[in-house]
Design goal:
The complex is a heterodimer of chains A (627) and B (81).
Chain A (H helix, E strand, L loop, with lengths): L21 H15 L2 H13 L9 E8 L7 H9 L4 E6 L5 H6 L4 H5 L3 E5 L2 H4 L1 H5 L6 H25 L3 E5 L20 H17 L4 E4 L1 H7 L7 H7 L5 H18 L6 E4 L10 H8 L8 H16 L3 E7 L2 H10 L12 E5 L3 H12 L6 E5 L2 H10 L4 E4 L7 H7 L10 H22 L3 H8 L2 E6 L5 H10 L12 H9 L3 E9 L4 E13 L2 E9 L8 H15 L4 E7 L10 H4 L3 E5 L3 E7 L12 E5 L3
Parallel strand pairs in A: 1-2, 1-3, 3-4, 4-5, 6-7, 6-9, 7-8, 9-10, 11-18, 14-15
Antiparallel strand pairs in A: 11-12, 12-13, 13-14, 15-17, 16-17
Chain B lengths: L1 E2 L2 H11 L20 H15 L5 H6 L3 H9 L4 E2 L1
Helix pairs in contact in B: 1-2
The chains are: A alpha/beta (627), B mainly alpha (81).
């Protein structure tokens, strides 16, 4: 995670193992955290973090502002470490106790000079409205209404105030149930009671958020309801106005961590599954197809439940693959003919069922599907296989299943590795597309020439200017695309919308389909007008359409548009990242000449000529004109 | 229950972000710069986690130096070597 720090830094390690290097300390501390998931391990990590040079973080820093109307400080170490685990250095701003309104509404507040990437607004009902929370029984119906209005107006004003002044992502909570009934057993008999008042507030909060972009609901209601053990620490609440229990601090911090993972583009895309004792009980090679445990009775029911959850992930757009040490025909027979199997062969984009080691099999899956290894999650019940993959492919997340199959499903559900900030139509169709990809590769090997292959594919590309309906998908593309991405700028939906309103910017998309499937929106570019020069400040293409000349069409469309508008010169930019080496010379291929070159950055120039730019002949292109 | 006194030193070092060797009989809210009121909350949570106990309200206020913590832990059947 961390590189070496050159200067003599303060040497310390809190575990008492002597004077270890700081980067080692941090890595060790993170390892302990992974094993223990304890609050003290978070404290340790966060204290080590304070001594680490931010420059050690590959991705730079991530600025988080935390606004709350209660003492949220014990949560901060957890948030810091969750961010650091994503390779970002956490810069944190915490509001003073109960100064939410002034921080948000006063344009000169320190919040607004902080320049946050993300803002957490965490509100505690008992501080927001002590009357409603603690004296519910004494409220008349009109008083109750006015309390509710007061809360909702406050929340609405805060979100509106924030959204006006910043494009940062905003995370707002809803309210958990309080730990008591206002009327005892009469609660269920009352028209107005504390429970349904909280339900009503939460519904209204949900509605408020629908009006804004890049504002996300952090569902405290579910978080508190689903957590085992105490959620509130009454002592710290009374002594410090710090209500969260130790375990809640961990759970809540990790919940925010899931959001941070999604918005920094670290969402996992592909799930690789072992078979024996993972998808069913027993070993097919020994027990035979009739002997494996899968069905409606224990323990087979646990495996069915696990398979159903995997199918849910599949329907959310997660790519599935198999990696098993077995005879291929034995495994495929189970998928083909075992009546109790929930997962079917067609749910898997590919499989490696052989006797080779699993690390190299996973690498092959990654090549075949064109998905980076760091987007992979590997699930196995064997300690040996899990350790092996962890050692050889540290970028892959490994889930080791215990010997209790009834715990499998929860393990998969609670990690949040696949959580995304939005679910687009493309997500739901993605598995179909990856399967098609394998078919396409087959077609490729039977076609005589590459051009012939492309012709046979019957590619159809739509290219045009982005409209508002495409904003979610476009934002998602900027978050997720790493390899074919010239500048790797990540944009929120709000930012894209701002660009759309900007007269000097043109936003282009491409949508692709072929005879095998509809692929959807896969390419995006931003052109910046500064007469007589137009600058391509973003240019990206989803890696699953590489090699089909889609980039050719997108670039030609940009050239044509710029030319039509009277521009004579195009500038292309390349920002180096760890993953985009393949497009380093992209502009050169299209006849651009290099005008600036450093190790991290290059700029390319192209003069638009008389001749009209042409699309590749064997591809059908439809231009959507809006202007 | 008898236990290694290093466990206490270790958890205090982790909470306050200092070396284990820096925690000794003289460590107190007055001598340790990092022993802020916020870190005091963290200390309560970390001690409870480390020793699997739940401190009473009085005890959460009384744990103001190393010897006192050692004494209070005894009330929860934890004897440090």
């Amino acid at each position: 995670l961390l590189g070496e720090r050159k200067n003599n830094y303060k040497l310390l390690c809190f575990s008492g193992t002597g004077e270890l290097k700081l980067s080692t300390c941090f890595t060790e501390a993170l390892k302990r955290l992974e094993q223990e998931r304890s609050y003290k391990a978070y404290l340790l990590c966060s204290n080590v973090l304070k001594e680490v040079d931010p420059e050690n973080f590959a991705k730079g820093s991530f600025s988080l502002a935390v606004l709350s109307n209660y003492t949220i400080h014990p949560l901060i170490p957890v948030l810091q470490v969750e961010i650091a685990q994503l390779d970002y250095y956490p810069q944190i701003f915490i509001s003073n106790y109960d100064s939410v309104a002034s921080e948000i509404l006063d344009a000169s507040s320190s919040l607004h000079s902080f320049k946050a990437d993300a803002i957490i607004l965490s509100l505690w009902l008992e501080n927001l409205t002590p009357k409603l929370a603690n004296q519910f029984v004494s409220l008349s119906i009109s008083e109750l209404d006015s309390e509710i209005n007061h809360i909702l107006t406050f929340i609405g004003d805060m979100i509106k105030g924030l959204r006006r002044k910043t494009v940062a992502r905003i995370f707002l909570n809803n309210f958990p149930l309080l730990r008591y009934n206002s009327f005892g057993i009469l609660e269920g008999q009352q028209n107005h009671n504390l429970k349904n008042t909280i339900g009503k507030l939460n519904n209204e909060i949900f509605k408020i958020l629908q009006n804004y972009q890049d504002v996300y609901l952090v569902d405290y209601f579910s978080l508190f309801a689903l957590m085992e053990g105490p959620t509130i620490d009454n002592r710290l609440w009374h002594m410090n106005r710090a209500p969260l229990s130790r375990n809640m601090l961990i759970e809540m911090g990790r919940e925010y961590g899931k959001f941070f993972r999604a918005l920094t583009g670290k969402t996992k895309k592909c799930l690789v599954l072992d078979c024996d004792n993972t998808l069913w009980g027993g070993i097919v090679g020994e027990d035979g197809i009739k002997g494996i445990k899968i069905g409606k009775e224990y323990p087979g029911s646990c495996y069915q439940e696990f398979q159903r959850e995997i199918l849910n992930l599949h329907n959310r757009g997660i790519i599935l693959a198999l990696c098993s040490k077995n005879n291929e025909e034995d495994i495929l027979e189970i998928f083909d003919s075992h009546p109790e199997m929930i997962l079917k062969k067609e749910n898997f984009a590919c499989w490696k069922i052989n006797w080779e080691n699993k690390a190299s099999n996973i690498e092959k899956i990654s090549e075949e599907l064109n998905i980076d290894l760091d987007s992979f999650v590997f699930v196995d019940d064997s300690q040996f296989e899990c350790d092996f993959v962890r050692d050889l492919l540290p970028q892959v997340s490994v889930i080791q299943l215990s010997s209790n199959p009834s715990s499998y499903v929860e393990k998969l559900r609670t990690l949040g590795l696949f959580d995304a900030l939005s679910l687009s139509e493309e997500d739901k169709k993605r598995n179909q597309m990856y399967r098609s990809e394998v078919e396409r590769k087959k077609a490729k090997s039977t076609s005589a020439s590459y051009e012939e292959y492309l012709k046979e594919l019957n590619i159809f590309i739509e290219v045009g200017l982005v409209d508002t309906i495409k904003i979610p998908r476009i934002s998602q593309l900027t978050q997720k695309t790493n390899q074919f991405n010239l500048t790797t700028q990540r944009y929120s939906e709000g930012e894209i919308e701002k660009f759309l309103a900007n007269e000097n910017k043109r936003l282009f998309y491409t949508k692709v389909s072929d005879r095998i499937s509809e692929i959807g929106i896969v390419g995006f570019a931003i052109l910046d007008y500064d007469y007589p020069t137009a600058k391509i400040e973003t240019f990206l293409l989803s890696c699953r359409v590489l090699g089909r000349k889609v980039e050719d069409v997108l670039l030609k469309k940009i050239m044509k548009t710029a030319k039509k508008q009277g521009f004579t010169r195009l500038i292309g930019i390349y920002n180096r990242t760890k993953k985009n080496a393949q497009v380093e010379l992209f502009y050169q291929k299209y006849g651009f000449s290099n005008i600036i070159q450093t190790t991290e950055y290059s700029e390319w120039e192209y003069f638009l000529e008389e001749e009209e730019p042409k699309y590749p002949p064997y591809i059908r292109v439809k231009e959507i004109e809006k202007e | 229950m008898k236990t290694d006194s290093n466990r206490l030193k270790k958890v205090m070092a982790e909470v306050f972000g200092v070396k284990e060797e820096d925690i000794n009989q003289n460590t107190s809210v007055d001598t340790l710069e990092n022993w802020t009121s916020l870190n005091h909350m963290n200390l309560i949570l970390a001690l409870e986690e480390e020793f699997d106990i739940s401190l009473s309200e009085d005890h959460t206020i009384e744990i103001l130096n190393y010897p006192l913590i050692v004494e209070i832990l005894k009330e929860y059947n934890i004897e440090l070597d």
